[in-house]
Fold each of these.
Amino acid sequence: MSIEAAEAAVASSGQRVRDLKAEGAAKEAVEAAVLELQAAKATLTASVEAALASCAEGTPEYDVLKAKLPPAAKPKGKEKKKDDAPQNDRAAAKAARAAQRGAKAEAKAATKDEAVLGPNLSQAEMDSAEFGNLFIQSTHAATRAWTGVKELVPSLAGQQVWVRARVATSRKQGKALCFLQLRQSMHTAQAVVFAKEGELVGFAATLPRESVVDVFGEVTLPAEAVASCSQSAVELQVRRLYCVSRAMPELPLQLEDAARSDEQLAADPSLTRVNQDVRLNHRVIDLRTAANQGIFRLQSAVCEHFRGFLLSQGFTEIHSPKMIGTASEGGADVFRVEYFGRDAYLAQSPQLYKQMALMADLDRVFEVAPVFRSENSLTHRHGTIFFHLCECFRHMTEFVGLDMEMTFFEHYHEVLDMLDRTFCAVFDGLNQSHQEELAAARFTRRCEQRLFTPSALDSETDERARARIRERLDARGPESLAEHADTEDMGTEDEKLLGEIVAELHGQDYYIIDKFPAAVRPFYTMPDPTDPRWCAPLSRPRSRAPGPRPSPRRGLAARSNSYDIFIRGEEVTSGAQRVHDPQMLLDCAKEKGVDLSPIYSYVDSFKYGAMPHAGGGIGLERVVMLFLGLPNIRKSSMFPRDPKRLNP
Amino acid sequence: MSIEAAEAAVASSGQRVRDLKAEGAAKEAVEAAVLELQAAKATLTASVEAALASCAEGTPEYDVLKAKLPPAAKPKGKEKKKDDAPQNDRAAAKAARAAQRGAKAEAKAATKDEAVLGPNLSQAEMDSAEFGNLFIQSTHAATRAWTGVKELVPSLAGQQVWVRARVATSRKQGKALCFLQLRQSMHTAQAVVFAKEGELVGFAATLPRESVVDVFGEVTLPAEAVASCSQSAVELQVRRLYCVSRAMPELPLQLEDAARSDEQLAADPSLTRVNQDVRLNHRVIDLRTAANQGIFRLQSAVCEHFRGFLLSQGFTEIHSPKMIGTASEGGADVFRVEYFGRDAYLAQSPQLYKQMALMADLDRVFEVAPVFRSENSLTHRHGTIFFHLCECFRHMTEFVGLDMEMTFFEHYHEVLDMLDRTFCAVFDGLNQSHQEELAAARFTRRCEQRLFTPSALDSETDERARARIRERLDARGPESLAEHADTEDMGTEDEKLLGEIVAELHGQDYYIIDKFPAAVRPFYTMPDPTDPRWCAPLSRPRSRAPGPRPSPRRGLAARSNSYDIFIRGEEVTSGAQRVHDPQMLLDCAKEKGVDLSPIYSYVDSFKYGAMPHAGGGIGLERVVMLFLGLPNIRKSSMFPRDPKRLNP
């Protein structure tokens, strides 16, 4: 390794150690990083010493080099930890030992390696060699036709194809044979390297896992199916083989460990488990498992179907600002930003802006955008050994909101029905067009599949379905639900009970609850005037602002025109009819003790003609997590954020 | 007005004055707000005094009320300003005078008003009255069929329809006739209220502009076309009329002023102009103009076609974190966030994360998300009197990035072609399906339409088109382009010249420039090895990291595999092939003096097998602005942000 590279490696490892400590990461993670740092320092020492050996003492170069020698790497605690060290420790220790052999030895080894590692080729040179290391720098226009691993099927038998893929595994068998498992996302195929002479087989055997290769070969039909590969009915007989990117020989985590299912782990306690923090620290590797390939392609599909349905219904997509001048909607749990000498805040939701967009005559709007919550609360829901490190924090501090808001004519159920149909469109889309991703995503954690089947949706997503749930709940009697004060929200237990009833009645894990108490909803929620506890009209409405106003105190006991949508007993959407009368908005805010003066633009937007409207916000990661039955919200966030995690 | 409401109005107006001052808003804007505040205080005084009059002196209530009296409102400078005051001033002064008449007088007036303003109705009561003020609180399920203003066409003649719309204007003609212009987004229709007896006409005449009404009436065919309305071939004979939301009588800006075209304003200097700051301060009203209705529906359509095309090409949508642990990509111009006792930063682009997503085998990804730039630079491009207030700041601090990144096989032009086809899909989509919005958006500012016609795109979007541009540029001779040092970027003048050539040759204002100097691109940009100033190979590549490395210094003079896309001579997209070799990345960063240790996760992501890849980022607001030829980036941002503006 060059001295520059070794120096950079030391700097990078040092930074990682500092970051992990700052994040309060698990002890083992910090220790592993410290070992990596020590290994990097050893490599640097070796590189510098080798350079010093070929440099006359006393020259300026010699002094410059000598100054680069790092402080002695002290592998303290390494031996003590050996037995219970995770794989990272072993890798680091091995790297450290290898580095300590010294650069001279390494130089010798490199000369020996070169024969096996093959020549370095430019794109111009590749046709002259049947194997080698190919660096692609766009020197030649694209001319080849490429075949995906997924497309390797028996009908291609006899054809010669180019495939670019990762080497999942490389198994040499004797001098003339090497099997490569090629992988592209969720698909794998077996490539057979067979050559009685030459170095093609030797070259194939040196390829570290996860390296990227270009393979030219003939598709053949094996006598027996290749059980270990998704493309089990074919093999690829390799004629030419180029390494496009050679992976480091030691991976921070093994993909086969990360890919195991709960069942496999339960059946064999000796198997290596990869905990959530290690996964997130090396997220790019972790994301390569088939389950994660499925999860994040499904996440994309959720957004696609959400938007596709709403666009078909005449919605306009908006983009509201994320930096706002005032800590709206309460002010707690909001992140502060330094904004040219004053304070700005990160938007906790696009709520006020999507309503303002409606008042600006956009009529039906949606937004897909990040939302920010500075919440620091601890959870008690998940306490298992594997998730305790990250599940200390119940909420992510940043997630993706799928928000919608629309005007309606007579009743906010027009909007609730739209939300309901949106969910159905999303579920139908996933079930109909993403079977492969669903199977991959559900492999590691199986959960009941009693939800979102198109047939169930066809018959059960209308007003009648909601009525039937109410009947069944009534039939269980009042004791089945916890007693609530008029101003209390539902508890988790009640939510789960309702989930069970829905599953019984409808064979699916999706339901809506309507009419929450005004006390547990935001100030801009429209009270339900059909509730007798609602006292209207209070006063003769002012001519400019007709309509009844709520009575302070008693109004809070009343229901409001608000709703939540649940999957598997957990909320994924919250929404309501909003107050569109500016006077009533002031009254409601006063009742809740909310100061509206910082958001006068919002209040003003209702003063010049306001359409009745309602809407809701959907948590993207929650929908993906609950649809798939994943155990942790971080599994459905590509690079999750919580109070302790800001990296990667 | 109730005392509570008056107090809230004072608080809100006071906050607005403080905000405007903090933002360094124009003097006139601040003065107008001060007058509003004074008017609000006068109203409060009047309300309190009225209450005091009906309250015995010496009682606790009396003292509480008395304490509410605000400090005397001193309308200093009001008279002096009268002549050149904007409409806001006149409104505020009028409101102040009205308020000062006192609450007793107002109460009398209200009783008189009630006859004209009509009864207040609940949804249950509306069938019993042919007009009135209807407050919609979702007490009754939706039962009516509603017709859009756009749908009012001659084929409906003779039918009775329900329409909900805004009252754009109300013109009473005698006792028995009133014309209402109804508006829904970009569409208007004339409603005729004719009644020889009863108060229907009087009620219609009291409706302030922008109020929302429900109209039930019969579609008829007028003898002459209604030239003032988009639905000129029909009229609506009003049978029943309900005010769903009554607007304040004085608007902060008049829609007909805000809607005028540049030509109209140039032809008649006496017309009221609405400057950009007033528009943005009252954005919800400003957005109701037909031009803005068109602009923001087109903005939505740009996103729709961008995503639709990329999804059709196998892309996956990702969501990368916006709060990041380190100030990546340079560190300047980055916003700092307080993050649980330490610092986080707002992402300036999803660049590093979209590359990491590719390294995680997602292969082709895109993201539509806000990006944040703490840029404080002043512009000199636009100095006109109408835009000087907001155009002091060249850049918005928050905008929407349409980012894409994909692996390629042999040459980064595979990716550039994908970007090119993406733009064509967007342009085609807009031109083919959004003619109405285009016409509305282009009304206020006409610009040449020599771009993005499907026929031009069909023949001119391939490699040949790019070659022809180069020929034409060569034909003009070297003197036509400014002399550049090897390490300099193109200047604005050169960009415009190229724009002219493209327009001459291809009849459109869209072009791509390829191969920028490495010196003006970020450290992760792949150098162009075909440039003779590029010195490769420098050293024997290490077996783990094959490939040539750039020579420090001389490498910066070389071209890089990077490109920009332009519309009307301004850049809308920047992109490049990225360095996918970790050793080369370290070398390039070192050459640029970039410290990679804080972003080790990014560097590490290339160590375990990396596919060659390229991508680009598109500024949504810039595409909309330049496609439509708008004069100001704030015109294509719904709620723009710059160093002085954080509201609304």
Note: Residues 3-112 of chain B form one domain.
Amino acid sequence: MSGSKFQQAPHKLLAIPGPIEVTNEVLDAISQPPMSHVSPGFVKIFKECMDMTRQVLYTTTGMPFIIAGSGTLGWDEVSSNLVEPGEFVLVVNNGYFGDGFSDCLRAYGASVDHIRAPLGDAAPSIDVERALKKRKYKVIVVTHVDTSTGVLSDVKAIASVAKSVSSETLVIVDGVCSVASEEIRMDDWNIDVVLTASQKGLGTPPGLSILVASEQAIKVFESRKTPVTSYYASWQKWLPIMRAYDSGTPAYFATPPVNMIYAYHASLKQITSGLEERFRAHQKASERIKAVAKQLGYRQIPKKPSIAANGMTAIYVPDGFVPKDIIPRLTEHGIVVAGGLHKEAKDKYIRIGHMGTSVVDEGRGDIELIEKALKASVRK
Amino acid sequence: MSGSKFQQAPHKLLAIPGPIEVTNEVLDAISQPPMSHVSPGFVKIFKECMDMTRQVLYTTTGMPFIIAGSGTLGWDEVSSNLVEPGEFVLVVNNGYFGDGFSDCLRAYGASVDHIRAPLGDAAPSIDVERALKKRKYKVIVVTHVDTSTGVLSDVKAIASVAKSVSSETLVIVDGVCSVASEEIRMDDWNIDVVLTASQKGLGTPPGLSILVASEQAIKVFESRKTPVTSYYASWQKWLPIMRAYDSGTPAYFATPPVNMIYAYHASLKQITSGLEERFRAHQKASERIKAVAKQLGYRQIPKKPSIAANGMTAIYVPDGFVPKDIIPRLTEHGIVVAGGLHKEAKDKYIRIGHMGTSVVDEGRGDIELIEKALKASVRK
């Protein structure tokens, strides 16, 4: 499948829920000599990244913000640009990352209410409806896939219910662990912000914060009454820059991470060449890995298959085993996986990532390798 | 000089004041397959980056913060961690970047006073002394080299005078355009924070915010009375992470940009192999370029040689020429330079960067190429 002459150094398979394995084309792109961030060549690449990011999220009118940072920076963007101090935010919280986003919102002065789902569960949209009827929320925040548990939220249903109860409320999706591995149709589903990072489904090394805002979100931002409460994350600074690049003109606020942008561009070209096929490949790989894990006595954290992510698997280790023995065994068999992260079950489960080229390029044999390693992990 | 088998793609010489040309070793390192950010291999590389960053700044006790972002993010770190809302900050302002830092400080609630130097000049330390005697400042901020004008401030003298008048005032140096091209002795000179980015003297592609804080700065941070006013830039989040990596243990707040860290590591290894030699090489190259420019009728923006940076040259184009003709001519002759940035003289001058491998590796012939292109630029 790879047309690049670039050869990756031999290494163990990176099967954590981000960073993930990347293609030869991505590594070839990242190693190009840096060019000027205001040169016509770079402006073209950046503009194409904006357009392809829109494509991945099925939006024609969304405004992408692509900034040096980690996924977390997207939380700052939402908290400091779309919420004014004292305004109410509803967080649909199903784990570690819901807690983190809430912390961030509070740091910038928001009043945060929660709908909490128990470990392994997703909050039902009826709870969202009830909460929105009780109080006026400026924004509602949902983690699409909580990387700590692999729980997938039904963001389509939540956005639909939210907009029908309160059309002015902005729907924010934390898609760090879902963009390009789960379908998200921003325009059709009425989602106002999707924020993510480069190192998961987007198949690029970590180092880019990627966020797309709807026209409604931009309007809400532009009609703020109080000053933006951040600087590096401020859309007052970034919006003119993104608009300039979007119209083919360079502009300067902070130096863009040019090599990371080349890498992202190379990955987006591969991703947008077959988006629906890509989602299906993620589903297929996920089903295979989850089925093998089940046979071996591993137990899913998500309580139902319908709320389990397609880009990762979070599983309790079989009885009689502990992660601190299983993880090194998996490494011996060639795959690097992640330990638990959710505080209630930290030492009882492991997390496996299966996103991007590992699931799309079957010739790599990555899914077979994960299956083999899982089987070896519980052999006596 | 290069021992790497990696070959860069042919390209025009990047001679802007950042991003700069990088070595084959740096591009080889950035194109390694991503590894887990909590693996022992990555922890070792990150820890070595922290130690070598200390070496570059001649500090043994400073705490480095290395985060995905641009240099600007360092402003947010200072403004939201070291200054509490309403506290007074003195900005020694000699251009575009002093204005930017002030904006950032105000966004987080600081009360900002300025000492402004006219275009091409640096504020004398006597003015700093006078200001500090009039009012108690929490921090004083100095841009070491203002990338918009090439003016070099005497941060050693300013820190000395500041600490003698008000020992509790923290001295903050914006070293984005000076670290590794100008000498900075953090411990000896009593500097509390040096903030910078990866893409200038540090010879790495853009995408890393790098900041080192003194023990006094960390103490001031730890004795804050009000909550930190940012999230992604919050040391409450980052300090435990940096301390963990510093002691050889992984920790997680936001995913570090692993490939950027490999690249930074490769560059730091080259930089720390001969730091004083490197500073001399920058001085020598700078003198050569400035002398040639003078012969050709270009005129320095910095009013005296003693306040001209060694890593870049900002020059008014000769009479009868305009930058928008000169810049494409320079490109035709193989070098990419930057236009003006300071609002008072934007369309009258150009900026040339001469940092990192371009000045250290004489075998590349970069300085000769810049000289030749400059000569060709004014030929009738």
Note: Chain A touches chain B through 63 residues (CB under 8 Å).
